[in-house]
Design brief:
This protein is α+β, with helices and mostly antiparallel strands. The chain contains 3 helices and 8 strands; from the N terminus they run αβαβββββββα.
């Protein structure tokens, strides 16, 4: 590439808190941060279904479907033309996946930061329980090894 060509190169998009994402890799990267969500499925602006679920997998495959059933959500970015990233008046992000007249809105119920704190709490709680169990087992072994007059 010559010096003159590099000067006229358009920079990659920078989307902060709101915008339209058409690149499938970018869509996937954003969607993989989701875990528990509320979803609203609309066709021609009319609500077809809504509920809550867990994003189990995000993938890109033109031969597979996006599936939502039994509170499990499998998102195929190839099922949608673009993703519109928006914020509610309370500054909470939501994601609209658009394909023609179909809209699938995903509203995170946990942010990635909340999810991280929750997972860390679970790890800390598990470590504390394991420590208690091991400590109790050692106490029992010490009692069994000692000379007991009974």
């Amino acid at each position: 590439m010559s010096y003159h060509q590099s000067q006229h190169q358009i920079p990659a998009p920078c989307i902060i808190d709101s915008g339209i994402i058409v690149n499938k890799q970018d869509m996937g990267q954003l969607l993989t941060t989701l875990s528990r969500v509320r979803y609203v499925h609309r066709i021609d602006g009319k609500v077809q279904s809504e509920g809550e679920g867990y994003v189990m997998k995000v993938f890109a495959d033109p031969h597979r479907s996006t599936l939502i059933a039994n509170q499990a959500i499998y998102l195929n970015v190839q099922s949608f033309d673009y993703l519109q990233l928006s914020q509610s008046p309370a500054k909470e992000a939501y994601f609209d996946l658009i394909q023609d007249n179909r809209q699938l809105r995903l509203i995170p119920l946990l942010s990635p930061l909340q999810e991280e704190c929750s997972q860390q709490f679970n790890v800390d709680a598990l470590e504390a329980m394991v420590t208690q169990v091991l400590s109790a087992k050692w106490d029992v072994q010490i009692d069994e090894d000692g000379d007991c007059p009974f």
